[in-house]
TrEMBL record:
The keyword Amino-acid biosynthesis is assigned to this record: no
Domain of life: Bacteria
Catalytic activity: a lipid A disaccharide + ATP = a lipid IVA + ADP + H(+)
Record flagged with keyword Transferase: yes
InterPro entries, per the entry: LpxK, P-loop_NTPase
Pathway: Glycolipid biosynthesis; lipid IV(A) biosynthesis; lipid IV(A) from (3R)-3-hydroxytetradecanoyl-[acyl-carrier-protein] and UDP-N-acetyl-alpha-D-glucosamine: step 6/6
Family note: Belongs to the LpxK family.
E.C. numbers: 2.7.1.130
Lineage: Bacteria, Pseudomonadati, Bacteroidota, Flavobacteriia, Flavobacteriales
Entry keyword set: ATP-binding, Kinase, Lipid A biosynthesis, Lipid biosynthesis, Lipid metabolism, Nucleotide-binding, Transferase
GO BP annotations listed: lipid A biosynthetic process; lipopolysaccharide core region biosynthetic process
Protein name as catalogued: Tetraacyldisaccharide 4'-kinase
Cited function: Transfers the gamma-phosphate of ATP to the 4'-position of a tetraacyldisaccharide 1-phosphate intermediate (termed DS-1-P) to form tetraacyldisaccharide 1,4'-bis-phosphate (lipid IVA).
Recorded GO CC terms: plasma membrane
């Protein structure tokens, strides 16, 4: 049935792809102008709709870079209830700045975090107000009005952009050949025991350009669940309600199933703002497990003894030093010139 629906939608995808290709060509040819700041900008994005692991990737980069450079993170603040430029503070309202930016600030209070749907304006505001050496552009791969100095393109292990279609027949926000703008292709949510042979197969499917580097990463789950200052052993955490408002909860549910957990799953749309009725229903649940992104939206309404999240980290399968040095060397070359 799904295949038949896609066939019906394919003409609309081709039309949409043509429009997007023309738009990108106008930027490539210089007919539409892109802004590039003097401060180094590193873009993390994808070609598909959500769920590729951008937040863990941004956090991974923050950990690697903030020890050496004064850095900031700039997002659009998807589904926030505000407009324009806003700097994210520890006392910010999560609905006004967005859940992911607030999560970044909460975990890394020493860095600057801001939101602006106009990335060029956001970069200018950040660089005018703060002495920075690197700005991480969250989900800005299609934002062609900004020309980043370095781009990392994420694609999910079991849903590579090379095997997908443009909207509405598929999930791509632009044709797969847009990947040529990336310096690095990072395949996310891989099995941690991914074989070398499978990595070679994926590399062949992606048809990388000579200047592009390929890396593989998986999800590393914490041994504890967390709520405020509390930490509980995950192995003893069982019989709970799982609450998710993320694009793709499947990796999490698969991990819980593999860990033999007993739970019911309440699934909400990505970046969901929980209304009063939903909050009241959740208050009746004895024990809730959620994602860190959902936790920052729910923590003010539910008790610390009731609501917990399972921390995750992005873990490169190999060549972590090579990945880190590639970025550090790129930043160094930028400022040497």
């Amino acid at each position: 049935m799904l295949k038949q629906i896609r066939l019906v939608l394919l003409p609309f995808s081709w039309l949409y792809a043509c429009i997007l290709t023309l738009r990108n060509k106008l930027y490539d040819w210089g007919w539409k102008k892109s802004y590039q700041s003097e401060v180094y900008t590193l873009c993390v994005g994808n070609l598909s709709m959500g769920g590729t692991g951008k937040s863990p990737a941004i956090e991974y980069l923050i950990k690697k870079l903030h020890k050496n450079y004064k850095i900031a993170s700039l997002s659009r603040g998807y589904k926030r209830k505000s407009k324009g430029y806003k700097e994210v503070l520890l006392n910010s309202n999560v609905e006004e700045v967005g859940d992911e930016p607030f999560q970044f600030k909460r975990k890394f209070p020493e860095i600057k975090v801001a939101v602006d749907e106009n990335r060029a304006h956001g970069i200018k505001q950040l660089t005018q107000q703060h002495d920075l050496k690197c700005i991480l552009l969250d989900d800005a791969f299609q934002h062609r009005r900004v020309q980043p100095h370095f781009s990392i393109l994420l694609t999910v292990y079991n849903n590579l952009y090379a095997n997908d279609f443009v909207l509405p027949a598929g999930n791509l926000r632009e044709p797969s050949w847009g990947a040529h703008r990336a310096d690095v292709i990072l395949v996310t949510k891989c099995p941690l025991n991914l074989s070398i042979e499978k990595q070679r197969q994926i590399k062949k499917q992606l048809q990388l350009k000579k200047y592009q580097k390929l890396f593989f990463a998986g999800i590393d789950y914490s041994e504890n669940v967390v709520s405020g200052s509390q930490k509980l052993d995950f192995s003893a955490f069982n019989r709970f309600t799982l609450v998710t408002g993320i694009a793709n909860p499947k990796p999490l549910t698969e991990y819980l199933d593999a860990s033999a957990k007993t739970y019911q799953h309440l699934k909400f749309p990505d970046h969901h703002h929980f209304n009063t009725n939903e909050i009241e229903k959740l208050k009746k649940e004895k024990l809730i497990l959620t994602t860190e992104k959902d936790y920052v939206r729910l923590k003010d309404f539910l008790s610390e003894d009731q609501l917990f999240y399972l921390p995750i980290e992005m873990k490169l399968l190999k060549h972590e030093d090579k990945f880190e040095n590639l970025i550090l060397n790129s930043i160094q070359r930028h400022y040497e010139h």
